[in-house]
Amino acid sequence: MTLNILFFTITIRKRKVTLQEAAQQEMVEKLYEQNRDRQISMHHFM
């Protein structure tokens, strides 16, 4: 009889975001919103 046991330990830590990374993420979200709005307006235009 063989008994195989496998254990995993997962640790989740909150990552500290630098000011530069936060500014970059905000710009990405703003551009995403603009593109989404543009797509919606083109869809309504058709």
Automatic annotation (TrEMBL):
<dbReference type="InterPro" id="IPR012655">
    <property type="entry name" value="YrzI"/>
</dbReference>
<protein>
    <submittedName>
        <fullName>YrzI family small protein</fullName>
    </submittedName>
</protein>
<dbReference type="Pfam" id="PF09501">
    <property type="entry name" value="Bac_small_YrzI"/>
</dbReference>
